[in-house]
């Protein structure tokens, strides 16, 4: 029993890092511009299919493709921001929620028309490693490491570069940032792009060990909401911690009750968390 | 009562009655009934959502939870306990009202996007819970025994009864929507929408007003849910708590014009007709979702007030007629 818990917990925690990256994208966009990106899930699915086609059709190495997918995600985000979000950035929340939702509909509509909703998987393994009772597939370890690396790079970018500092300034107070000469529209577009980039990276990493469909992003998007609220909306570091908590829960709960109860626990926790501490376990800061 | 004389009320009611009566006179009655059922259901869902979304300014993304839970409660009573359909409908309304009241007390304290997220969480939690709840059939749901229809004079008769009930309910929703809008209570809700803190200073008891708006907007979807699943003959978690349907209701409200009585009617009818057209047209049927998405985006970006709002702004004399 204990062995099972330890193994399952380790599995869940590794997955938690990847969840954390997905949620970090959502959290970054929320923190900078108060927009909940409802197209997050379908953008994650694009990341999955990026790896799928690069691996199956061109035989490219998934981790190499990750860089390309991330770049495409960044550009796509900037495009989405300029086309759909910028005009309503100061409108009530309903407008931005529906604007990003319409992007989601567009992406999913194109996706299902071109690719159908049949399940796919990337047939890629690196063997596994055994540590006592735990056997971990290398793809999971690599995904967790990649997630940590991405999180570290994002941190460096936000705190050490000029663009990153502009993003934090705009998040803090857009009007004041504009008065200081920061081109806020460009910074907002960049932040949105970074958010979608993180979504595609998370999707790409997930595709190396789970099967997926065009619609697979939806479930991960809901998880990202839960994680963001656990870690505090708008707090990228909190998102990583929230991801670990959720991954851990997904690892532990099956040891005590049926797996189908996992979402019940997750969403009750989510609503309770919103009610009790909407700012998250850590206090929200950007 | 002066509000009975307002043309806006009669226009909305007349439109609803016209759609309801269409199948009676149509040549292919069964087909027309199915189409009208879908439109009326969408109208009722959109109109009741509008009370919370349009008047009060609270974006409920998971409003379909009441449709699903109400449907489940009513379906359970009808199929397992063989109770008559009106008992199921009333029980669904009562349980939705109770749930909305308790839930509203808790989550209506959240504002803006936090509230929207919480409603998504509630819907997903409900779906996941029902999937594991064995009395309601767990993941496979429940199916109505065919013999149940015998109490209503055969399946065909039962479908017409369900249809008539939906038509009556939709009329009731439209009437309620109008009465709320023109009442003192509605004025309080709109004050909350414009500025909640200022409204409280002016003497609107915001927490209780919001909760009642939430209860009213939850009761009707629950009743519609019972009739819809009674008509379908089966219910399962995947059909009852479709987040996407919830968002479609928001789209209909936005399309027609949020905060107006007529808007959700027009929005629902237009959206359903468009969807029907796209689904059967050879050119668009595969890419139906994308076309709807583009249309939605254009409306959000360029006509945020919706059709009725735009007409009211453009042609001031129409304001007396379009409410």
Task: Describe what is shown at a glance.
The complex is a heterodimer of chains A (286) and B (323). Chain A has eleven helices and two strands. By secondary structure, chain A is mostly helical.
Question: Which tags fit this structure?
Answer:
heterodimer; A: 286 residues; mainly alpha; ABC transporter involved in vitamin B12 uptake, BtuC; two-stranded antiparallel ribbon; 2 strands; 74% helix; B: 323 residues; 14 helices; 75% helix
Write the layout of secondary structure elements.
The complex is a heterodimer of chains A (286) and B (323).
Chain A: H1 2-33, H2 40-56, H3 62-85, H4 93-115, E1 128-131, E2 134-137, H5 138-160, H6 162-172, H7 174-179, H8 184-207, H9 217-231, H10 236-256, H11 262-276
Antiparallel strand pairs in A: 1-2
Helix pairs in contact in A: 1-5, 1-8, 1-9, 1-10, 2-3, 2-8, 2-9, 3-8, 5-6, 5-8, 6-8, 9-10, 9-11
Chain B: H1 7-25, H2 29-56, H3 64-79, H4 85-107, H5 112-132, E1 142-143, H6 154-182, H7 184-194, H8 196-201, H9 206-232, E2 234-235, H10 237-240, H11 243-256, H12 262-280, H13 288-302, H14 306-314
Antiparallel strand pairs in B: 1-2
Helix pairs in contact in B: 1-2, 1-6, 2-6, 2-9, 2-11, 2-12, 3-4, 3-5, 3-9, 4-9, 6-7, 6-9, 7-9, 11-12, 11-14, 12-14
Q: What features would you describe in this structure?
A:
The complex is a heterodimer of chains A (286) and B (323). Chain A has one domain: ABC transporter involved in vitamin B12 uptake, BtuC, CATH 1.10.3470. Helix content of chain A is 74%, strand content 3%. Chain A has helices at residues 2-33, 40-56, 62-85, 93-115, 138-160, 162-172, 174-179, 184-207, 217-231, 236-256, 262-276; strands spanning 128-131, 134-137. In chain A, helix 1 (2-33) packs antiparallel against helix 8. The longest helix of chain A has 32 residues, at 2-33. Chain A is globular. The model of chain A has no long low-confidence stretch (mean pLDDT 89). Chain B has one domain. Chain B has 14 helices and two strands. Chain B has a two-stranded antiparallel ribbon. The radius of gyration of chain B is 19 Å and the shape is globular. Chain A binds chain B through residues 30, 34, 36, 84, 87-88, 91-95, 97-99, 101-106, 108-110, 112-113, 222, 225-226, 229, 233, 258, 260-261, 263-264, 266-268, 270-271, 274-275, 278, and chain B through 53, 57, 59, 61, 106-107, 109-110, 112-114, 116-118, 120-122, 124-125, 127-129, 131-132, 139, 247, 250-251, 254, 286-294, 296-297, 300-301, 304.
């Amino acid at each position: 029993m204990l062995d099972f818990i330890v193994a399952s917990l380790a599995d869940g925690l590794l997955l938690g890092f990847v969840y954390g990256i997905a949620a970090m994208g959502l959290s970054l966009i929320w923190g900078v511009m108060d927009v909940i990106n409802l197209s997050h899930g379908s953008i994650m699915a694009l990341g999955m299919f990026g790896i799928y086609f690069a691996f199956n059709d061109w035989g490219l190495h998934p981790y190499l493709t990750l860089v390309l997918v991330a770049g495409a995600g960044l550009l796509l985000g900037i495009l989405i921001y300029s086309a759909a979000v910028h005009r309503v950035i100061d409108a009530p929340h309903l407008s931005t929620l529906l604007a990003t939702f319409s992007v989601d509909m567009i992406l999913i509509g194109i996706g299902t028309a071109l690719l159908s909703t049949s399940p796919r998987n990337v047939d890629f393994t690196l063997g596994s490693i055994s540590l006592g009772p735990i056997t971990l597939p290398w793809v999971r370890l690599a995904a967790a490491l990649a997630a940590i690396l991405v999180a570290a790079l994002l941190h460096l970018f936000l705190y050490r570069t000029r663009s990153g500092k502009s993003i934090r300034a705009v998040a803090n107070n857009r009007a004041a940032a504009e008065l200081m000469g920061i081109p806020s529209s460009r910074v907002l577009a960049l932040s949105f792009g970074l958010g979608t980039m993180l979504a595609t990276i998370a999707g790409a990493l997930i595709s190396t060990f789970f099967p997926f469909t065009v619609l697979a992003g939806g479930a991960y998007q809901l998880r990202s909401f839960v994680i963001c609220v656990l870690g505090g909306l708008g707090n990228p570091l909190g998102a990583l911690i929230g991801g670990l908590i959720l991954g851990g829960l997904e690892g532990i709960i099956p040891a005590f009750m049926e797996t189908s109860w996992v979402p019940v626990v997750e969403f009750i926790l989510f609503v309770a968390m919103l009610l009790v501490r909407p700012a998250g376990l850590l206090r929200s800061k950007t | 009562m002066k509000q009975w004389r307002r043309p806006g009320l009669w226009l909305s009611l007349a439109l609803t009655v016209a759609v309801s009566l269409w199948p009676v006179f149509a040549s292919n009655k069964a087909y027309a009934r199915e189409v009208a059922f879908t439109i009326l259901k969408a109208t009722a869902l959109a109109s009741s959502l509008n009370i919370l979304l349009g008047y009060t300014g609270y974006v409920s993304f998971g409003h379909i939870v009441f449709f699903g839970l109400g449907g489940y409660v009513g379906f359970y009573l009808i199929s397992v306990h063989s109770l008559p359909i009106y008992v199921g409908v009333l029980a669904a309304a009562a349980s939705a009202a109770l749930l909305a009241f308790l839930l509203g007390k808790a989550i209506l304290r959240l504002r803006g996007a936090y509230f929207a997220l919480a409603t998504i969480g509630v819907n997903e939690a409900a779906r996941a819970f029902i999937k594991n709840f064995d009395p309601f059939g767990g993941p496979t749901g429940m199916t109505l025994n065919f013999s149940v229809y015998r109490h209503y004079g055969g399946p065909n008769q039962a479908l017409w009864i369900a249809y008539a009930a939906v038509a009556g309910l939709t009329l009731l929703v439209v009437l309620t929507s109008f009465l709320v809008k023109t009442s003192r209570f509605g004025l309080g809700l709109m004050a909350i929408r414009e500025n909640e803190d200022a409204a409280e200073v002016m003497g609107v008891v915001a927490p209780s007003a919001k909760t009642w708006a939430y209860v009213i907007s939850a009761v009707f979807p629950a009743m519609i849910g019972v009739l819809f699943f009674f008509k379908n003959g089966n219910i399962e978690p995947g059909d009852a708590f479709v987040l996407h349907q919830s968002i479609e209701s928001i789209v209909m409200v936005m399309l027609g014009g949020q905060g107006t009585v007529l808007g959700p009617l027009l929005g629902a009818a237009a959206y359903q007709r468009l969807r029907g057209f796209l689904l059967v047209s050879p050119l668009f049927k595969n890419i139906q979702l994308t076309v709807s998405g583009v249309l939605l985006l254009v409306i959000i970006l360029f006509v945020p007030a919706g059709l009725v709002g735009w007409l009211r702004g453009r042609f001031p004399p129409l304001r007396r007629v379009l409410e």
